[in-house]
């Protein structure tokens, strides 16, 4: 697809390479048409899996000349994604006051664990810490066991990368009227809490009357949980509404008089599990294909694109045998195009190309390479 029809065509983004949340933010912008240039330190990041379709330059941020490269790059860019701890960019001479003085239209996005202010601003942390400090982790336990986060999905990605991208889009939209950029302070802790706004506002509803893991939508009900099948796979049941529960029991060939929705939960769970173990996941899919009961298979990540339910909507594709989601949401006129099916750049692959674009001469580029301020692949001919 030609990128002339993409929503963020013409937007130039500088992404300071970090761990997972920042690269996801940059990928979202790239998938919808932005040109993203990743500033990598001289030592390659062994965990980088999100640079596909981006440009890569290697810069020595310990040298004045290397810092000047980033300054000049930001002077002609629309967005900077700062993935470092608070104060690091200021120490490098790349803080918002300096960069936005030179480029008042710059959207300076700062993606950190705890935000730019507050007691924990300088503390190290990971997704589990940010979810814990957001208040959400306290809800994710069962049977009075210690709470566990759903991998690093909530803070790193939902509250971090995705909300940071939203903040950037909002700032770019506002810039169309003011002509000015602004700082986007994206805290993964605050982001996780914000994603969970409904959970905070619904705490007084009767659905949360019990301990975590005993309520309607956290695994407490027999009609809202998962069950193992004969072949070791699983089915997900979400038959909360009475009409769906009735249909669910029809699929299991059980009587609602004997197994009422608000009856003995343990007894129902035991019986439901016994029945689900009598058939394979595919057999249960065939049964519930014909019944509207909010019952679905738990699809394996490695096979999700091949299942008959998902193959029809083309929501995934394969690259180097990895299953990768297509961009979402789908826009009718300016849809995203996944950068994941493009090659991953090598360290320094685009250094010379980018330096030329921002006004460096052949001689000055040679000097930057020679004095170790940047690294460039020599295949990139001057």
Distinctive features:
14 helices, alpha/beta, three-stranded antiparallel sheet, seven-stranded mixed sheet, 382 residues, 14% strand, single chain, 35% helix
Could you characterize the architecture of this molecule?
- α1 packs across α6 (153-178).
- The relative contact order is 0.13.
- The radius of gyration is 25 Å and the shape is elongated.
- A hairpin with a 2-residue loop joins β10 (316-319) and β11 (322-325).
- The strands form three sheets. A seven-stranded mixed sheet has the order 6-5-4-1-2-3-12, sandwiched between helices. It has a three-stranded antiparallel sheet with strand order 7-8-9, covered by helices on one side. A two-stranded antiparallel sheet has the order 10-11.
- 35% of the residues lie in helices and 14% in strands.
- The chain is α/β, with parallel strands linked by helices and 382 residues long.
- The longest helix has 26 residues, at 153-178.
- The model has no long low-confidence stretch (mean pLDDT 95).
- It contains 14 helices and twelve strands.
